[in-house]
Amino acid sequence: MTDTAGGKPIEVAVFGAGRIGRIHAANLARQPGVRLKYVVDVNREAAAALAAQHGAQVADIDGAMGDAAIGATVICSSTDTHAELILQSAAQKKHVFCEKPVDLTLERARACADAVARAGVVCMIGFQRRFDPTFSALKARIDAGEIGTPEMLVVTSRDPGAPPVDYIRHSGGIFKDMLIHDFDIFRWILDDEADTLHATGSVLTDPAIEAAGDIDCTAVTIRTKRGRLCQINTTRRAAYGYDQRFEVLGSEGLLQAGNVRPTEVVAYSKTEVSSDVPEAFFLERYRAAYALEITHFFEAVTQGKPVRTTVADGVKALELAEAATRSWREGRTVKLDEAAR
Amino acid sequence: MTDTAGGKPIEVAVFGAGRIGRIHAANLARQPGVRLKYVVDVNREAAAALAAQHGAQVADIDGAMGDAAIGATVICSSTDTHAELILQSAAQKKHVFCEKPVDLTLERARACADAVARAGVVCMIGFQRRFDPTFSALKARIDAGEIGTPEMLVVTSRDPGAPPVDYIRHSGGIFKDMLIHDFDIFRWILDDEADTLHATGSVLTDPAIEAAGDIDCTAVTIRTKRGRLCQINTTRRAAYGYDQRFEVLGSEGLLQAGNVRPTEVVAYSKTEVSSDVPEAFFLERYRAAYALEITHFFEAVTQGKPVRTTVADGVKALELAEAATRSWREGRTVKLDEAAR
Amino acid sequence: MTDTAGGKPIEVAVFGAGRIGRIHAANLARQPGVRLKYVVDVNREAAAALAAQHGAQVADIDGAMGDAAIGATVICSSTDTHAELILQSAAQKKHVFCEKPVDLTLERARACADAVARAGVVCMIGFQRRFDPTFSALKARIDAGEIGTPEMLVVTSRDPGAPPVDYIRHSGGIFKDMLIHDFDIFRWILDDEADTLHATGSVLTDPAIEAAGDIDCTAVTIRTKRGRLCQINTTRRAAYGYDQRFEVLGSEGLLQAGNVRPTEVVAYSKTEVSSDVPEAFFLERYRAAYALEITHFFEAVTQGKPVRTTVADGVKALELAEAATRSWREGRTVKLDEAAR
Amino acid sequence: MTDTAGGKPIEVAVFGAGRIGRIHAANLARQPGVRLKYVVDVNREAAAALAAQHGAQVADIDGAMGDAAIGATVICSSTDTHAELILQSAAQKKHVFCEKPVDLTLERARACADAVARAGVVCMIGFQRRFDPTFSALKARIDAGEIGTPEMLVVTSRDPGAPPVDYIRHSGGIFKDMLIHDFDIFRWILDDEADTLHATGSVLTDPAIEAAGDIDCTAVTIRTKRGRLCQINTTRRAAYGYDQRFEVLGSEGLLQAGNVRPTEVVAYSKTEVSSDVPEAFFLERYRAAYALEITHFFEAVTQGKPVRTTVADGVKALELAEAATRSWREGRTVKLDEAAR
């Protein structure tokens, strides 16, 4: 573990120079006391471009992991590389920020959790939604008791369009790929764990998704150990864009988290009063959240504070995704204890 | 004055079987203890149709005014007949509900005020906006002190389309015909009287309106005796319909009165999120207000309570309309004491 | 069956002089061509009061059913009397408007459907929500193709407070008593039938509800024969009032039906921008719907048009309520064909 | 004028290390191809702190103006220094970005306009509102013809609280200090020039403001050369925060620009449905606008494009502020040709 006291900057290696890697790189470049040293990507050209942009160097995995000066890794590479890079980071006593999901298998995800615990390094999972200003303000208001005891949660989570079927084929399925975020929101907002889970779904947009063994819309219901209820509805294809809302009914009131609009223009025509559709997709919608989570990570690392989204949270969300997959496939309610086995 | 005690119904004569007459007739027919006896209109056919609908009879002015059993008159005939019918009602000791404006001249309006005062009859002017559920709830909240001292009022008052130019020619001008309502709102909401008034305007929709000596959009500013400010913006032609909003800034907050929509449907298309345009015109927008003002009138009559919109209010609104007309014509700020002379 | 041609009014008997009976009586009293002749209630005093208000007479069941002049019955008595009164109406060739639910058992509800079909009388069930201006405008826009093919429906249906536990004990349970409306909305909006249904729920407000064998909040998921998804969330106790919303995702967009507010006042204080909570409960929220459904019923009767909410719809909604009850009790997904057996 | 081709960065001197100076410094530090070289402030400590933050040096006016390597100046010092710094920048052939107002006197403001024109340097005035995403999207939609011909503009512009009276005493008065922005919005949105202007106002919050010869709330009406109307309402003290809205009525519709909220949380309590008050003040509300205007300035400098807010715009806004001051003081409508003399 690098000593971060005394103003010496934390040196960082970013794995993955794709869309999300570029966002994290830009955000961490803005952190005081943080220096982007390496960019690692199998696509050397992408790595070089990103490195150049921030005055960093291109490295390969061994080079980056082998450099004792590197205090933290930021993992934004493809899902199948996450676990291995977490394990290596832990072995090298480097703090880890890793994009969701930890892994597509519970076994490997749990191995990661064990490894970082043993190594005593910080490991934060990129559930950026918990850092969205609207979502985190809502959570703070629940915690302040504004709506009494939370009782029901309704999550609407809709993508503007399905990814390529080839991506879907290797995604682990809609529950691990897409609802993983919603499962994390569920645990965070209701502050409770699932007792039973029911999931169903359909293919309504593209038969190729069915051929790939997946579905494109789902309806999930969770009943918690304390009897609270959660419903999640999702689709891969909302014609009007990216729709990310939830509402929490409490014993004393209701809190809703709405979408963010690009502008506050309202237009009155002869037939309707209209405003903007929501921000187009996650890069726009969660722009502030991505910046805030990186700040949070480095504050946790430098100040020794706990992170808001731990690898244990990543494992728990994956357990729910596994349970949902099983429920959908078998057409039955799944007990979480059974799923967690 | 008819004795209304003992459950004997008040018998009523309605003058004017046009659009607004039909609304008042239907509303008063629903009042317990009220009976529509006569409908009077120069258009005998219209009178007959309305009378038939409510089991009433057709009468002429003398017949209706001469019937001692008639306890109240409801005057919805053309503006040039209002004053005469009010005077006759007063002379016959009949209570009066009269549509706005009292008259197009201050002199005659004041004569009406004097006459009803001397006769001791109730005389209510149809400023129905004061009975709109949204507007009256807002007023009640001001009165309850929710926003501290009211300081500024901004009134948006827009018609969906100009009436025929022939109507405009005999309307007394936009200030007496259209803004008379807004001047009443101003006095009611700010609970203050005008000290100075400035009005300007233009013809932007139809040159024929200019040829008729009128304008089709105006901007009025009033400064009250206590230094409070009011701005009114109006147009004869809002492409999106009937727009009736105002907002009151107080020392402790702001209250806005918004439009009413026909339905609460919200639609998300690929390009926008839309809801209904406001209710189409005054008959729809103020449907509830028309019913409530008639109830209020008959309650005042039967229970001896004061009316919310007196003939004095009608005179005051007309003074403001006169002042606005003068300000616009002469291109200068008008002092109300001067205008009232 | 009474001949309604030639302007002879349809004479009507209302069964039940309670809250909803009074509403229907007032609405039908306003219908041209309709005359309220009898009010029937075991509570003679309530019957007498309501009869007096509309110039009708008090009768008992036999008297009303035995009067051949009665062309239609309006049944608003307690649920356990519905089936018997429908059967008698059918036997007497009287048209029937009956409050939901038809009955608490499928067997008797189906017997009613058979009886009215054989008798050839109109039988309309009081699913008034289908007549709510917002809901019916939304449905018309779906039917016009505005959002393409409907794919998902999310229904939020929350009461402001639980009825007395004694009422709950005889209500047939939350699914038959409360969600019966939501099940009807589901069928109407998605224009599809359930294939599988999953229901879960909890008691979160009052342990006495659990003791009565019922729950106070539920989460239901339906998958239709065409693969469409529906989620319904309900509670007996929403602190902020009566919450009646739904949204329909289609292949081309989204339509939301929102709550109705008493006024359009918006207030800005030092800490928040606020508007009214929704209309307090069903009598306020569905005031327009109650009037429109009665008009619809008598138009159907006099003009021989089909009714929008048939007794078959009542049976179907009850089948869903039965399936939901079974799903909740047995903790498993229920196949509708099985439930319908 | 520095040659900015070939990737050599433009070196910049910032005058003023106060609140707005710090914002501009941070934003220009993020521009590619731009280097902050000097910070100048009579408060050497503030200058040093800001310089240190961005790796710049502290300089005095002569040092910064005398350095031929400085290609552009950014003037955020007190208003009474603006004109002199613009003149010096022009003399040294440096491009200028200057905060509003250009000067408190028309004579000196015009001298600045002349000087930069003769020098051929870019001179942009900091009317940042034109760069607000909501306002500029609205303007683009007007320009695209969405609402036909613009006819009326209503501007609501309210500060959350009055500045210290000592500031007010040297501010040039509310019209030059505060409404200068609104006058610029008026010209930009209606794309027209004032023909006549009427202003009135009051002191309603603090008698000390009256003693200082100023007012704290105003109502301004402008009629343009083409007969369009504009109303502006402002106050120094809106209890609920910073309120920046306007709406434009056109021949075909209406466009409204609303406030921006910190979050999209909506809360339902027992008594109201509430959302956040608007962003607290201009630093929060116009955060994006400040960044965008600086980018715009340097793009104009490096690419030789015209700036959106010229020194001529600054002069025009000042003419309106002069006219408004005269109208308010003299209690009469002012003709702009007269005011411009």
UniProtKB/TrEMBL annotation, chains A, B, C, D:
One of its GO terms (molecular function) is oxidoreductase activity. NCBIfam families: myo_inos_iolG (TIGR04380). Residues 10-127 form the Gfo/Idh/MocA-like oxidoreductase N-terminal domain. It comes from the Bacteria. This is Myo-inositol 2-dehydrogenase. InterPro entries: Gfo/Idh/MocA-like_OxRdtase_C, Gfo/Idh/MocA-like_OxRdtase_N, Myo_inos_IolG, NAD(P)-bd_dom_sf. SUPFAM superfamilies: Glyceraldehyde-3-phosphate dehydrogenase-like, C-terminal domain (SSF55347), NAD(P)-binding Rossmann-fold domains (SSF51735). Keywords: Oxidoreductase. Residues 139-336 form the Gfo/Idh/MocA-like oxidoreductase C-terminal domain. Belongs to the Gfo/Idh/MocA family. Signal peptide: none annotated.
